[in-house]
Amino acid sequence: MPQTSKSSGAGAASPASAPDQGEPPPPEGARAQVAAGDGEEGATVDDQGDPEIVKSPSDPKRYRYIELSNGLRALLISDFSGADGEGGNGESAEQEEEQEEEEGGEEDEGDSGEGSEEEEGDRAEEEQDSDFEELEEENPVKKKKSSEKQAAAALCIGVGSFSDPDELPGLAHFLEHMVFMGSEKYPAENGFDAFLKKHGGSDNASTDCERTIFQFDVQRKHFRDALDRWAQFFICPLMIEDAVDREVEAVDSEFQLARPSDSHRKEMLFGSLAKPGHPMSKFCWGNAQTLKHEPREKQINSYERLRDFWRRYYSAQYMTLTVQSKETLDTLEEWVREIFIRVPNNGEPRPDFSHLQQPFDTPAFNKLYRVVPVRKVHALTISWAVPPQGKHYRVKPLHYISWLIGHEGTGSILSLLRKKYEYMLTHTQKCVVHFVFQYLKMLQTLGPQQRIYEEIQKIEANEFHYQEQTDPIEFVENICENMQLFPKQDFLTGDQLMFKYDPQVINAALSLLKPDRANLLLLSPENEGCCLLKEKWFGTCYSVEDIPEEWAERWAGDFELNPELHLPAENKFIATDFTLKTSDCPDTEYPLETVSSYIRFHLISPMIQKSPENLVLFDLFVNILAHNLAEPAYEADVAQLEYKLVAGEHGLMIRLKGFNHKLPLLLHLIVDKLADFSTEPSVFTMFSEQLKKTYFNILIKPDRLGKDIRLQILEHCRWSVIQKYRAVSKGLTVDDLMTFVRGLKAELYAEGLVQGNFTSAVRHTHTDFLTSRYQVYPTCRNTSGVLGFSVTVETQATKFSSEFVEAKIEEFLVSFGECLSGLSDEAFGTQVTALIKLKECEDAHLGEEVDRNWFEVVTQQYVFDRLNKEVTLMLLHLHVTLPTSTHPST
Ligand SMILES: [Zn+2]
């Protein structure tokens, strides 16, 4: 679906788990599981939240639902946490804005819907390379935005591209752009964006089939002002003719950007299969052709039609609004009523598509489509059309079914595919389809399983119960859409919780997923040349044929079940004991972190550094161990227990995070797999090849190679990546690996850190400048006891020679030295004060403190109160300017 991507930040992805279209179901009674209500400390008698809205016990925010007399429905969210979110003085606000500007410099990727797919290769590679020795100082990767929360608002209109007039495809999307071009009250064309930019905010919008969502965030002290400016787009947008012509170009370029995306192409191709006249087949993107050139030829006044569409559909009774800020509920209510009461209500009924529920009840569906992809990928999509399931949101039958189909543990489709890997290379498509149908047939034969349903239910409930606070702009975006779909009490839970096991409802959906109702879509570069059809808008080349008779016959009637496919066994990793809950510290700022624990082990062995061969074997060992764990540890993964194995310089690091209760079970599993380590020759070969590629990629990346050489100079004994690359290239065997592993296990020394308490952690910032051409960053380091200050410069080799760069760095060091010696005591004091502030700063994540402590363990320094010591020392320096120290001495 088209999405605007104006400001950096806010990636407007629609929530995947939202139920399908359909009217909000009627409210039901009995609410189980989750604690209801408000009644939090800090709520004054006058500032009541709404006890009917079911929220997570770990959610400190307060909620109130109101309906304005114009029909607009709003959810007010107050997240005042007791601490002053403003940072106290003007100084911090300035810093904040500076930071924003830096961040603004980085371009967003635009709205390609499949960035993740494309980046995957790179990321897997990053994962494998894992140096840990300079945990704190290294890693010039930019940290997330400051933890200081923004205020945010989102508005959802229950109208989307389905309402586009036939002669103006893309009009709803176009209007979503146009309303932002100034209002009667604030006429400047890009005034709102400029305002947000100045105050550290961002905004975005997206148009879906039956809904359009707008959202923004901004620094809290500017929220009232921003809200008023934003609301004018729904009250009195200017939409002047002049701007219309220009903005068509913006919509057109969004379409042009989307064109090379295989997922967008596939979506549009699916749309084209819908029954003739069904809105599903509309071209919702819009482009210059549909919004400008064709209307001109046909003498359609698209400017007038835009205003008509606004008057007809941007009406208060279709709107749901969510606002979140630190103000009291009473204040938020006052603001929302004052501002949004002016949104007009045209009294028209809501657009209704309920008579069009079966778009794919057509012969065009249930075929085999071959498609030529843009990227070199092979992908198979099996689809079934099922009736709208929105009214079953309390049961979520499709979630239950897709959970099982997507399962990765023993007995799953993926598990079988992994085993048949080699066979698969030749029999891909038919074989995969067959496994999926066999699995579904098994599910249909066995019927819905209460035990499995309850496991999923428990996992979702745990996640909701111990949820982490999300970014306000994402949160309000999600909730304002939920308000269109669920009754009031389920605004916060409707898209996540599984409320009720209902085998009949699950069976009804499950029984539809039969081979003879499936549509197959096969993406493959090999289809090139045999696809003579062309999709109208994206130009996707495809062909259509009947499902091959041989396949259809095999699936018809009673095709055999596969004995290797079976239901997942009971998940032993689901936490049920939460006795270490947070209720003892209700007034901390981030109370939810405490249900998570961290376990880390460092298994050190002198074997590893003995030779480059050993280092390579160690890397192979860790990668294969992770591979061996993938299946048995999948259950832990879905139960929100995270684990990671890292090949360090001197040992294996095992990091675990998750609910206390079952975390040790996961550790045992890992240790067992380590103790009984074994591997197949084919797996060994696959990982050897992969590792060779990884080393090679390090060798061709200047920053990685530079680091390797720097460390070689600093450390007594270090094998270079080139040596490792040579070692893996000359060929190692499974026997080599097993011999190495036996030696490793014989000489193992373990250190560990277990942490589950909540204390302050510090955030580290890095000076990092990123431009398209080169990277420059200075860092302070402590490498195996060698203190250092390094300046790293990366440029294109063809632009500057390394001698030239070197000279520039020397020049900088001289001038910086002069700058330092010329620094006044006062200026130096300011710097020290800022650094103290930084080191004293509490952070939102327990994980960062764990990282800090872990650094002490890994480097065997064990100075767990390092920050306090550093702060104390710095305060000593400042004793002249600061009269007394209030900091606890250590
Ligand atoms: Zn757009």
Automatic annotation (TrEMBL):
Ranges of biased composition (kind: Acidic residues): 38-50, 93-138
Question: InterPro entries under this entry?
Answer: Metalloenz_LuxS/M16, Pept_M16_N, Pept_M16_Zn_BS, Peptidase_M16, Peptidase_M16_C, Peptidase_M16_M
Entry annotated with the keyword Iron-sulfur: no
Q: Where is the Peptidase M16 N-terminal domain?
A: 144-276
* PROSITE patterns in UniProt: INSULINASE
The Swiss-Prot or TrEMBL record describes its family as follows: Belongs to the peptidase M16 family.
What is this protein called in UniProt? Nardilysin-like
Q: Which gene encodes it?
A: LOC102196531
